[in-house]
Every structure is written in C-alpha cells, then in structure tokens.
Amino acid sequence: MNTLFSSGYCCSVGATTGKNDELTISEALCDPLIAMVMRADGVTIEEFKRLLEAAARALKANLAS
C-alpha cells in the first residue's frame, strides 16, 4: 500500500472497507485522484477538509429535521 500526504492526514491507499461505495472524509483526504485535482486547482488539504466537514454537518442537520 502507498501512503500519501506527509501532512498527518494520510492513510493507506486501498479499497474502502465499508459496505457502501462512498468515501469517508479520511479516505477522500487520502485519495490520489482527489489529491491531483486539488493540486491542479490550488486547494489545500485543510481547505478541503473544512469543506467536507461543513458539508457533513449540514447534511446531518438536514436529515435530523
């Protein structure tokens, strides 16, 4: 397995272990294709992490109501 991102958010790259096909936030932060797009767009891992966490909070709030 390969390890990406020396920033501390890294995980081993491989198939998701869950029962669905959706990436977790941790998996998305470590996905090599997402990393390439982020670099091309000039998006930092911190910015992307904040975006994903905000989206997860909003989705959770919408599902609760």
| Oligomeric category | single chain
Instruction: Report the structural category.
Output: mainly alpha
The topology string of helices and strands comes to HHH
The separation of the N and C termini measures 41 Å
**Any low-confidence stretches, pLDDT <50, length ≥5?**
1-9
Rg, Å, rounded? 13 Å
Mean pLDDT: 79
Roughly what percent helix?
Answer: 55-70%
Biggest sheet layout: none
Number of strands: 0
- Dominant shape: flat
Counting structural domains, the number is 1
Count of individual helical segments: 3
Report the portion of residues in β strands.
under 5%
Short description:
This protein has 65 residues and is mainly alpha-helical. The protein has one domain.
Which features would summarize this protein structure in a list?
65 residues, mainly alpha, flat, disordered N terminus
Structure, explained:
With 65 residues, the protein is mainly α. The protein has one domain (1-65). It has three helices and no strands. The longest helix is centred in the last third of the chain and has 20 residues, at 45-64. It is flat and about 35 Å long.
Please write out the topology.
Blueprint: H1 25-30, H2 32-41, H3 45-64
